[in-house]
């Protein structure tokens, strides 16, 4: 439910005169979720919704879709022609100098940069300073309710049960002399998700070397490899409860199709594990002490471990991402590589910690989810401490 007073309190604290929401053809799902709008309603004409730091919200809608924002508080203005739109928008923003929008300078945070450049230009033409809504989005879209945290823990318990079953299935097929392909194992995992009330927008990843050297490898029916004895098998699995408002659980585990894990694999896993644990420790310490910590700092903590071990060039993605109703959420990412995410990690948000080393021969990743409360941060599921030997 839209909490105008809470938003206004944050606007005042940030010295921002208002938050301007804009959408056309559902290009901004953040706006729909923050405002509590029907994301499937017809939206063939531009609309604007402005929450000022003081006073009542204001609406601007097209005359043929005049009821678009009826569920929201505030008085509505209506337009038909483009020139009328420009005049009405000026009135909508009267009294405001600094306006937050779903905009990210230099598109540093693509998840937030959803308003097109032309609309930003239009608002600037009205003598308004446009600033990013990234921190506001994190506060009002990326934070979880107690019910969402419970849905995450529920999904996590199920996924954590499916992981060893998937490894056992791969091993059993090898013992029987009828190895499954990566794609076949992926499809088996999807069936387990559905049978246990889970859903996912994209399928999980099952990858053996060298495919696990590609962080976003996608097994397909026609290109996946068989899972054989001696293979290093990585499972990247994410899912959520199949009910409205649920949030994702997202983890990665590694197993070896043999009785004893080769030292070449064990060595790399130890480095990745140390990087993972260093990042978690940095978050836990900061939260426990009430000290602000930013996404880039968490990435730096993990990245430094891998750099010192001599594998920096093989750690080619950020340490972690925000988790929400989409697996890649709109809160702070643990990132000092792809961007320098300087958003502060705030209470009631969750993110992955998943450092990895990806070489031409094979790749290694260990992934957990970290939930930040008011005074503590915790890993929400099982934690892998060593590569699992699958053929004992």
Can you describe this structure?
This protein has 392 residues and is α+β, with helices and mostly antiparallel strands. The chain folds into two domains: 4-141, 3-Layer(aba) Sandwich (Creatine Amidinohydrolase, Chain A, domain 1), CATH 3.40.350.10; 143-389, Creatinase/methionine aminopeptidase superfamily (Creatine Amidinohydrolase, Alpha-Beta Complex), CATH 3.90.230. The protein has nine helices and 17 strands. It has helices at 4-13, 29-35, 82-92, 117-125, 134-142, 146-175, 182-195, 263-289, 295-308; strands at 18-23, 47-52, 58-62, 75-79, 98-101, 129-132, 198-199, 205-208, 232-241, 249-256, 322-323, 349-353, 356-358, 363-365, 368-372, 377-379, 388-389. Helix 6 packs across helix 7 and helix 8 packs antiparallel against helix 9 (295-308). It starts with a helix and ends with a strand.
Topology:
Blueprint lengths: L3 H10 L4 E6 L5 H7 L11 E6 L5 E5 L12 E5 L2 H11 L5 E4 L15 H9 L3 E4 L1 H9 L3 H30 L6 H14 L2 E2 L5 E4 L23 E10 L7 E8 L6 H27 L5 H14 L13 E2 L25 E5 L2 E3 L4 E3 L2 E5 L4 E3 L8 E2 L3
Parallel strand pairs: 1-5, 3-4, 5-6, 10-17
Antiparallel strand pairs: 1-2, 2-3, 7-9, 8-9, 9-10, 11-12, 12-15, 13-14, 15-16
Helix pairs in contact: 6-7, 8-9
What key phrases describe this protein's structure?
20% strand, 2 domains, 392 residues, 5-stranded mixed sheet
């Amino acid at each position: 439910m839209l909490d105008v007073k809470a938003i206004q309190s944050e606007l005042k604290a940030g010295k921002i005169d208002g938050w301007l929401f804009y959408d056309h053809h559902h290009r901004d799902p953040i706006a729909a979720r923050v405002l509590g709008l029907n994301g499937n309603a017809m939206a063939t004409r531009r609309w604007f919704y402005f929450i000022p730091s003081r006073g009542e919200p204001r609406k601007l809608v097209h005359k043929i879709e005049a009821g678009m924002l009826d569920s929201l508080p505030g008085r509505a203005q209506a337009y038909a022609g483009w020139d009328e739109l420009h005049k009405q928008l000026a009135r909508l923003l009267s009294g405001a100098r600094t306006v937050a929008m779903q905009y990210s300078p230099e598109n540093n945070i693509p998840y937030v940069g959803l308003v097109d450049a032309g609309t930003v230009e239009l608002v600037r033409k009205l003598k308004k300073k446009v600033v990013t809504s990234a921190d506001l989005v994190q506060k009002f879209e990326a934070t979880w309710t107690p019910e969402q945290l419970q849905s995450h823990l529920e999904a996590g318990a199920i996924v954590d049960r499916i992981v060893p079953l998937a490894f056992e299935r791969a091993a059993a097929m090898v013992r029987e002399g009828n190895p499954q392909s990566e794609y076949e194992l992926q499809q088996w995992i999807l069936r387990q998700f559905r049978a246990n009330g889970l859903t996912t927008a994209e399928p999980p990843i099952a990858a053996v070397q060298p495919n696990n050297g590609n962080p976003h490898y996608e097994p397909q029916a026609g290109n996946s490899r068989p899972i054989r004895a001696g293979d290093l098998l990585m499972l990247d699995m994410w899912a959520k409860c199949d009910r409205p408002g649920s949030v994702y659980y997202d983890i990665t585990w590694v197993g070896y199709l043999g009785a004893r894990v080769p030292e070449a694999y064990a060595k790399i896993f130890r480095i990745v594990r140390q990087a993972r644990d260093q990042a978690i420790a940095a978050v836990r310490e900061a939260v426990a002490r009430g000290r602000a910590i930013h996404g880039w700092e968490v990435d730096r903590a993990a990245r430094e471990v891998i750099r010192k071990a001599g594998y920096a060039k093989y750690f080619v993605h950020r340490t972690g991402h925000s988790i929400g109703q989409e697996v890649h959420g709109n809160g702070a990412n643990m990132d000092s590589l792809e961007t320098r995410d300087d958003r502060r990690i705030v209470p009631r948000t969750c993110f992955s910690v998943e450092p990895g080393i990806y070489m031409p021969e094979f790749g290694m990743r260990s992934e957990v989810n970290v939930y930040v409360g008011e005074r503590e941060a915790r890993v929400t599921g099982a934690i892998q401490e060593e590569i699992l030997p699958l053929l004992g």
